[in-house]
Design a protein that fits this description.
Layout (H helix, E strand, L loop, with lengths): L10 E9 L6 H19 L4 E8 L3 H10 L3 H18 L6 E4 L3 H16 L3 E11 L4 E3 L9 E2 L2 E5 L1 E10 L5 H10 L4 E2 L1 H12 L5 E2 L1 E2 L7 E2 L2 E6 L1 H6 L1 H4 L10 H5 L7 E5 L3 H14 L7 E5 L2 E3 L2 E2 L10 H8 L1 H11 L6 E3 L1 H30 L15 H18 L3 H22 L1 H6 L3 H22 L4 H10 L12 H4 L2 H4 L25
Parallel strand pairs: 1-2, 1-14, 2-3, 9-15, 14-15, 16-18
Antiparallel strand pairs: 4-5, 4-8, 6-7, 8-10, 11-13, 12-13, 16-17
Helix pairs in contact: 2-3, 11-12, 12-13, 12-15, 13-15, 13-17, 14-15, 14-17, 15-17, 17-18
Bound molecules: 5'-O-[(L-methionyl)-sulphamoyl]adenosine.
């Protein structure tokens, strides 16, 4: 197997490009952890992968934030973009591209794309009247605002009345084409609840939307009329395209689109669904480009049951969380405890209980006790056994696990992937208690002891392997204690070192492999 099997279809996936109006919060970390886990899984499968993340740096919101801080917008953006990169490193996120919308090469892509859409006759000058929420960077219908024209997503900010000349994109022209596309590609918008939301929105009739602003400097000028600045969303969505350029490429659309386009999957939060599932495909249709494979809109996180936000004063700092508990713990909690697609909550007690129950106890303690027994009863090597019967409880569960987990990952059902894996660890604990190898040992039944220990060691290995996209460091630690000199954490070498086709199967541990001295792989969290 080569590092990536080029006979398999490639996989390009994006997180949103995050606004740099403040340091990253846990909402941005959530999407990025999910996309990282998915990309690791696809790499294990041997698909050539490209994971894109980055920052969205233009627009009024950023310009004002920089001004309030007394910094130039660019200095402000540089600082916040660096804090995202720092968080990704702490969370063990292995992205391939970090797309910044203030990059000069991005301007070339935006201009070329704008030109294509303009040549298509899809841009015209008009008058925009309406309420603008700077927090959302979006015009709002009056009926969507709270009393006093406050936006429900940014209740501490008043939407601002605008009456100005803007360039418009002819979204209305694409109504039928979009509807036909949704019908022909039911998988395009996921999960189903989001798809229904989009279908209902589009069926009400699409209106053209403005793609330029006046009285705003922080952005790219409209090529044909530099008094206007290109609307931040028009610019930001194209950040996905710019990200596809190789570092040495000339920044042309042709180069950007030559290798990885169309992107397979955009993972986003539900609040930016319309931009990705309606506006973006219409823009691409206008430019004559194929559409991305899927748009998946996940839910929102709350903290201790309350909506999280700066205005609520209850944000959850992901850096503090990782510093306290480590990357694997944070990744595991959010991907296991919240069904991807639905809203979910962070509660400190629940967080600690989950990690202790699943990783410290069900998995970590299992590894530890089994390695101790192997040391005592089997000379600290993987015992040599004959073929276990097909109806062996652990073998049976383990044999189907690779496929079950693959289906879950393919559907972004991270929680289901964790639950399936954990079920094998739980069954292994029960199996050990029932089979009591310590008693068999005293009885002198060495063959039974070895069969029991082999089955549990192999189960532990399999659980660690299939969980590795989510908890790469923990899985590597387990593999190493099982005597493998393999790294399940470095995405670049996954396909060559630990391919799914082999390691997600039952029966990979080979007889006589030397085991390491057991040391706790995930210590229990003690809360004062
Ligand atoms: N800049 C745009 C995206 C442009 S993509 C071309 C943007 N940025 S954002 O920083 O405001 O939001 C980024 C993502 O974080 C969105 O997908 C949003 O849904 C997500 N979240 C923000 N708060 C969240 C929670 N409380 N919970 C989960 N995700 C949340 O929008």
């Amino acid at each position: 197997m080569t590092a990536a099997d080029h006979s398999l279809p490639s996989f390009a996936v994006t997180t949103p490009l995050y606004y740099v109006n403040g340091v990253p919060h846990v909402g941005s970390a959530y999407t990025t952890m999910a996309v990282d886990a998915l990309t690791r899984y696809q790499s294990l499968r041997g698909r050539p992968c490209l994971m894109i993340t980055g920052t969205d740096e233009h627009g009024q919101k950023i310009e004002r934030t920089a001004l309030e801080r007394g910094l130039s917008p660019q200095d402000h953006c540089d600082e916040i973009a660096a804090s995202y990169q720092d968080l990704w490193q702490r969370l063990n996120i292995q992205y391939d591209r970090f797309s910044r919308t203030t990059a000069p090469r991005h301007q070339a892509i935006v201009e070329a794309f704008y030109q294509r859409v303009e040549n298509q006759g899809d841009i015209y000058l008009g008058q925009q009247k309406g309420y603008y929420c700077v927090g959302c960077e979006e015009f709002k219908e009056e009926r969507d605002l709270l009393e006093n024209q406050h936006c429900p997503l940014h209740p501490n900010q008043k939407a601002e009345w605008r009456d100005e000349e803007n360039y418009f994109f002819r979204l209305s022209k694409y109504q039928e084409q979009l509807e036909a596309y949704y019908a022909e590609h039911p998988e395009f918008i996921q999960p189903d609840s989001r798809r229904n939301e989009v279908l209902s929105f589009v069926s009400q009739g699409l209106q053209d939307f403005s793609i330029s602003r006046v009285n705003l400097d922080w952005g790219f000028p409209v090529p044909s009329n530099p008094k206007h600045t290109i609307y931040v969303w028009f610019d930001a969505l194209l950040g996905y395209v710019t990200a596809l350029l190789e570092p040495e490429d000339e920044p042309t659309l042709e180069n950007a689109l030559s290798k990885w386009w169309p992107i397979n999957l955009h993972v986003i939060g539900k609040d930016i669904l319309r931009f990705h599932a309606v506006y973006w495909p219409a823009m691409l249709m206008s430019a004559g480009l194929p559409l991305p494979g899927r748009v998946f809109g996940h839910g929102f996180l709350t903290k201790e049951g309350r909506k999280m936000g700066k205005s609520q004063g209850n944000t959850l700092d992901p850096v503090a969380l990782v510093d306290e508990f480590g990357a694997d713990a944070v990744r595991y909690y959010f991907l296991k405890e919240i069904e991807f697609g639905r809203d979910g909550d962070f509660g400190r007690t629940r967080f600690i209980n989950t990690l202790n129950a699943d990783l410290a106890n069900d998995l970590g303690n299992l590894v530890n006790r089994t390695l101790n027994m192997a040391k005592r009863y089997c000379q600290q090597v993987v015992p040599e056994i004959g073929v276990l019967p097909e109806d062996h409880i652990l073998k049976q569960m383990g044999t189907g696990l690779g496929d079950r987990v693959a289906t879950a990952y393919d559907n972004l059902a991270f929680s289901a992937a964790c639950t399936s894996a954990l079920a094998l660890a739980q069954a292994s604990n029960k199996f050990l208690d029932q089979e009591a190898p310590w008693t068999r040992y005293k009885e002198g039944n060495q063959q039974a002891v070895e069969e029991i220990i082999y089955a549990v060691l192999e189960s532990v290995r399999l659980v660690a392997y299939v969980l590795s996209p989510i908890v790469p460091t923990l899985s590597t630690r387990i593999y190493q204690q099982l005597g493998f000199e393999l790294n399940l954490s470095d995405r670049a070498t996954l396909a060559s070192q630990v391919p799914y086709a082999i390691h997600a199967q039952w029966g990979v541990l080979s007889a006589h492999q030397a085991l390491q001295n057991p040391t706790p792989v995930f210590p229990k969290i003690e809360e004062d």
